[in-house]
Write a structure and sequence with these properties.
477 residues, alpha+beta, Phosphorylase Kinase, domain 1, Aminoglycoside 3'-phosphotransferase, Chain: A, domain 2, six-stranded antiparallel sheet, globular
């Protein structure tokens, strides 16, 4: 998004709030507030400047409260290369005590001088307004709202934030719908809208179908939020796994059913969207990308360096197979599959959610066809994570889950992921490397978990599991 386009767009959209000077009011506050947010991707690097990409008044700033929708680029390494973030800011003369946790600060300069700014997604009044906009298709400023015309979306549902902040912010409306607001914005259609829409149109019941969404249209189209049915009464797979561990129960039946659900989703995606076969060149490129991520992560996390040579052999193995003429099918996949992305209903049926993929990876990578083994590897790593939260560590529990999941997957797809050991090892290794970087940046207490997998996967013939690390007490997902 160019700075010139950003300025033009802001000037059209922000009404009387002084768009060309909004940053005078915002920048001093955002320098302090933005890097502290869980969803801020640039931790560890100072923000050097902000660029206003767009500004739209959903409620006039002079109202009580006002509501500003902003797209802000936070430049860190150099101008015009930063990440773009979606902010919904409430504007008041003073902040009620009930909204104290939402405070960003009081503006000292610029057109908002004297006003208190706060995170509007913590204000039920303003999130209610956002919900009403989603019920009514149309445009306002740079924003466009759309919906499924066949969906029944009643008005007046109370809103509440869902749990702790992750890479996005989710709001639940009346235990009926859930709105995911994408904090880090990329041009193009977000796969968390694109894939569930395709699955719904193909009749797959494993994924909640989007009922409404909104996007920005300028300077480039980008998905900003998706409203879907809230599966009230369902329990997420991560909590179910932890509960089974705490009670000393086997989780193989649940893992097997989850494998079947995953295969159903993959099968529907393959029939609904284009598929491909990875060429020799693409396999070489895949291996090179994995190797590059490994080397860059080792530079950022020195603890990884001693294992680089052993880990690289996993990527060299698939490159060698590709060179010898081996090919693999590729299709659209989930991209960040783990236990926390699955929900089990009271009847035991599983649903899969959150199709955004790994937010830290480029959108072009997340939307290209890939082998389904990548999703399988993510779930296998998640069973490992769950097992290592339990003391004493339970490798037998994790091995049973891994085997059952693959068996369930094979019973639907006709192909056991374990029959592709080189590809599965490469994707498990790549996922563990990703986890190392994530934990080092966000949850250093949990770094021993992926490092234990790194040690195992770096061996010439990796065993299923290796020794347990020492863990902190809080759960990782």
């Amino acid at each position: 998004m160019s700075k010139a386009a950003s300025t033009r767009n802001s000037a059209r959209s922000a009404g009387s709030s002084g768009p060309l000077r909004l940053l005078d009011s915002l920048a001093p506050l955002l320098h302090e507030w933005l890097p502290r947010q869980r969803w801020f991707a640039g931790k560890g690097r100072p923000v050097t400047s902000f660029t206003l990409v767009s500004a739209t008044e959903l409620l006039p700033v002079g109202a009580a409260p006002g509501l500003l929708h902003l797209l802000i680029r936070a430049d860190q390494d150099s101008p015009a290369t930063g990440d773009c973030y979606q902010l919904l800011l409430g504007v008041r003369t003073s902040l009620p005590p009930r909204l104290a946790a939402a405070l960003i600060g009081r503006a000292r300069t610029g057109p908002l001088a004297g006003s208190v700014l706060y995170d509007a997604l913590l204000d039920p009044r303003l999130t209610g307004l956002l919900f009403e906009r989603l019920r009514t298709p149309g445009r306002i400023g740079a924003l466009r709202f759309d919906r499924d015309p066949t969906a029944d979306i009643p008005s007046g549902l109370p809103a509440r934030p869902l749990g702790a902040e992750q890479s996005n912010t989710s709001l639940v409306y009346g235990d009926t719908f859930i709105l995911k607001v994408f904090r880090r914005v990329h041009p193009g259609s977000n796969p968390d809208l694109e894939l569930p829409l395709a699955l719904a149109q193909a009749g797959c019941a494993r994924v909640p179908a989007p009922v409404a969404w909104y996007e920005t249209t300028e300077p480039e189209p980008a998905t900003l939020g998706v409203l879907q049915p809230f599966l009230s009464g369902s329990e997420d797979g991560w909590q179910l796994a932890l509960l089974a561990l705490a009670d000393g129960h086997d989780f193989a039946a649940g893992a097997r059913a989850l494998g079947r659900a995953t295969a159903e989703v993959h099968g529907t995606l393959a029939s609904a969207l284009p598929t491909a076969v990875l060429s020799k060149r693409q396999i070489q490129h895949l291996a090179a990308e994995m190797t590059e991520r490994l080397e860059l992560t080792a530079q950022a996390v020195p603890a990884l360096a001693p294992y680089v040579a052993g880990l690289r052999t996993a990527f060299d193995a698939i490159a060698d197979l590709g060179h010898a003429g081996r090919t693999w099918a590729a299709q659209r996949i989930h991209g960040d599959l783990h236990l926390g992305q699955s929900l089990r209903a009271r009847d035991g049926e599983w649903s899969v959610i959150d199709f955004e993929g790994e937010p830290a990876r480029p959108l072009a990578e997340r939307t290209r066809p890939q082998p389904v083994v990548r999703d399988v590897a993510g779930m296998l790593r998640s069973f490992d994570y769950a097992a290592r939260t339990h003391r004493p560590w339970s490798p037998k529990w994790a091995t049973g889950c891994r085997d059952a999941y693959c068996e369930g997957y094979a019973s639907v797809s006709g192909a056991d992921p374990r029959a592709e050991p080189e590809l599965l090892r490469a994707y498990e290794t790549d996922k563990a490397v990703y986890e190392v970087l994530y934990e080092a940046r966000n949850r250093p207490d949990w770094l021993p978990v992926p490092m234990a997998a790194i040690e195992r996967l770096s061996l010439p013939e990796p065993p299923v599991f290796h020794r347990a690390p020492k863990l902190p007490r809080r759960p990782p997902q």
